[in-house]
Amino acid sequence: MNPSIVVFDIGGVLIDWNPAYLYRKLLSDDVAVSAFLSDICTGAWNEQFDAGRPFADGIAELTARHPEQAELIEAYWLRWHEMLGGEIAGTAELLGRLKAGGVPVHAISNWSAETFPRAREIFPFLDAFEVLVVSGTEKLVKPHAPIFERFLERAGVRAEQCLFIDDNAANIATAAALGFHTEHFRSAEVLEARLISLGLLARETEAMG
């Protein structure tokens, strides 16, 4: 059966987030930015915060190991909002159209419990979701199955009722294995076409007329 519910990832689908946006302001060139984010404030280090570790703990530990980089490491928290690149073109509009059309919309996001409220202040469309499962609050992270199972339990729905949208292939693979319909996000235009094909979204001309 076709899905009747849409479940969004947030970072990389609705919101553009990249630490390089901040560190390009603080370091001399892209080579230095790449080295810092590969060797010091790495993706694996950031994943601790998505899993629920307090920023204060992670920053204290890392600055103890790299005291010469303390100011740059502390900026990861103090200037976190400068890592936000804005809305990803078109997807928040699709979210609004789904909501206006009566389609239930939910989200499962890998995001720190400490920084998500700051994102919510900047992006009011994050209040559109009926059930919002944030990894840092749950202390469960994608691509592992328990966070998807937590969502299904909380929303009171079955996986096969849901279309799950994510830009990460590993997250898509887990969702598919659990029975979700999936859409590996590439662009709002491709997503819109998929939503229309599934009958979840009317074409804009149909919606207007």
From TrEMBL:
<dbReference type="InterPro" id="IPR023198">
    <property type="entry name" value="PGP-like_dom2"/>
</dbReference>
<keyword id="KW-0614">Plasmid</keyword>
<dbReference type="InterPro" id="IPR023214">
    <property type="entry name" value="HAD_sf"/>
</dbReference>
<dbReference type="Pfam" id="PF00702">
    <property type="entry name" value="Hydrolase"/>
</dbReference>
<dbReference type="GO" id="GO:0016787">
    <property type="term" value="F:hydrolase activity"/>
</dbReference>
<protein>
    <submittedName>
        <fullName>HAD-IA family hydrolase</fullName>
    </submittedName>
</protein>
<dbReference type="InterPro" id="IPR036412">
    <property type="entry name" value="HAD-like_sf"/>
</dbReference>
<keyword id="KW-0378">Hydrolase</keyword>
<dbReference type="InterPro" id="IPR006439">
    <property type="entry name" value="HAD-SF_hydro_IA"/>
</dbReference>
